[in-house]
Amino acid sequence: MTATGRLNWLGMILPLALVLGLELWLRTAGIVTDILAPPSQVIVALIGGLLNGTILAATLKTLTGAFGGLLIGGSLGMLLGIVFAVVPVIDRAMEVTVEALRPIPSVALLPVALMVFGFGYGMEFAIVGKSCFFLMLILTRSAVRGVEPRLREVARALRLSRAATTWKIILPASLPRLFVAFRLAASLSLVISITIEIAVNPQGLGYAIMTAQQALRPDLMLAYFVWIGLVGLCLNAGLLLAQRTLFGRAALTEEAR
Amino acid sequence: MKHLAFALTGGLMLALSTPALAQKIRVGCTSSADCGTAMIAVDQGIFEKHGLDVEMTRIALNSNIPPALLSNSLEIGGPTSSVFLQAVDGGLDLVAVAGASVMHEATNQGTVAVIRDGVTIDSAKDFVGKKVGVPGFGAYIHILFNRYLMAGGVDPAQVNMVETSFPSMPDVIRTGAVDAVASGGPTVQRILSSGTGHLGPRFVAELGGDAPIIFYAATRQWAEANPEAVAKFQQAIAEAAALAASDREVVIASVAKFTEQNPDLVRATPPSKYVAELTTDGLGWWLELMQKQGLLQGSVDPGKLIVAAP
To answer: Where is the chain membrane-spanning (chain B) (predicted)?
Structure first.
């Protein structure tokens, strides 16, 4: 889809040709593979999985894990980000701690999370939450700091307290940027959630991919890939729509599209 | 209102009079036929007959089983001998409660090196300098492949081994990314049928072995707290093993159901041998092998790792 909502036929030529090429190659070359399947078989597996409800059940679990972590980690990160930006002393005091913990790859914490939380949502909430927490913290801090200085001057002229300045001036002014941060965190949460399921957690879409792969069902495995792509697209489209509705075109920077 | 009160009281009395439901035992196994006895015991109602409420979970990686046991995500798991011993060596207090699958002629013969066409490998020495795909470092096939190399006077370090999952083996052989793969199960037939590789050394069968491949394990804490459940589990597994030995179709149906593999694919795979009893000799065999390969750091006493059957 283009920005104007029309289908970009020109842009569709290459992906369609690739799909057709893959279909022809796999049908005619006679190769034995357990990681590729003709696109037609993938579509059949996708429809089958959707009809028997397994794909939707797995999607629900993944989204619960992803959004649970996003809500917990993201909201805490946002709150702390605001505090760090408004009270520079706290920011300086926490800088070493934040910079020491932030770079630890979330997935590297999986063995520890498995020991502590066991299988289930707890592990996903913790790991996804950790990723979203730091992302929201950093982006919120920079969004709040980036508020037009003249707005702060207005707050001073009005003799607003720090709390009132934050609530009445800084938050409304930084909301569009906060929403962009939220969108980034939402995509990240989905990626991390599926990674956890592929590696450890026996539930959701990632687990379904592993199961299909180990059952030597590449058609079903690829169907899950296609489905995850569609879920990601819908998620992004939904969030973009929310962004446009909430903040108008002012919030829509070039990168946001 | 009176009716409601009666209904509530009646319901409460009914609930109190019903015997408490058996504690749910979650058993975690990887997607292979090795835990076949537990799968059969679930499907054929053997666990239920022994008063056990068992639920099976597929675990993506075998090495995830020990931490899953420790975090109480599973009560019983099916680790490979190597994963179990490495976990115990690393300080996790696990015990083996019942045997699952053991090495035997059919699976030993079916675990082979498949060589890419155009490459000639007939003996351990021919592997020197070659790139070989193994399904997991420190895992069952890798350790047995190392044993074969060492028995043939080859240092495993002279072979360039890369981790290759089973499903990707036909592709890495076809594309020439590796010279050979150490493989087993349905993958061997898949590669042979594609006409891109041929059978190489039968690296397990050449040296033989009858040690356990996978067995059922639990934390010592859980096993000691639930001796009755452990005893019932052992009895159920022994019964399932007897059934599996007499009726292969039951095994195929249960394995296909649990792994979601096509039943024909399961049928084409060499059948597993299920033995419910565990011996210290079996574990000791692995211990010695792994110690020789430098895979264990401390000393593990196999005598303390098995919960004896009643």
So the answer is: none
CA-to-CA dists, residue A151 to A146, A165, B43, angstroms: 11, 9, 69
Q: A118, B71: Cβ pair inside 8 Å?
A: yes
Angle of CA points B164, B86, B298, to nearest 5°: 135
Strands B160-163, B131-134: pairing kind: parallel
Contacts of A115 in chain B (CB under 8 A): 67, 70-71
DSSP letter assigned to residue B19: P
Q: What is A54-251's CATH topology?
A: MetI-like fold (1.10.3720)
CB pair distance less than 8 Å for A115 and B71 = yes
Which structural domains are found in chain B, ordered by start? 23-104+210-304 (3.40.190.10), 107-199 (3.40.190.10)
pLDDT digits (tens, 9 = 90+) for B59-108: 988 988 999 999 889 999 999 999 999 999 999 999 999 999 999 998 89
Q: Could you tell me which of A2, A72, A45, A99 has the C-alpha nearest to residue A209?
A: A45
pTM: 0.80
| Pick from B57, B168, B194: CB nearest A32 | B194
What residue ranges do the domains of chain A occupy? 54-251
Closest of B277, B74, B103 to residue A118, by C-alpha: B74
Q: pLDDT of A82-134, one tens digit each?
A: 999 888 899 899 989 999 998 998 888 988 898 889 889 999 999 999 999 99
CB B210 within 8 A of CB B103: yes
**Residue B184 to residue A105: CA distance in whole angstroms:** 34
Across the range A134-140, mean pLDDT stands at 94
Residue ranges of chain A whose CB lies within 8 Å of a chain B CB:
31-36, 111, 114-120, 198-200, 202, 207, 210-218
Reported ipTM: the value is 0.73
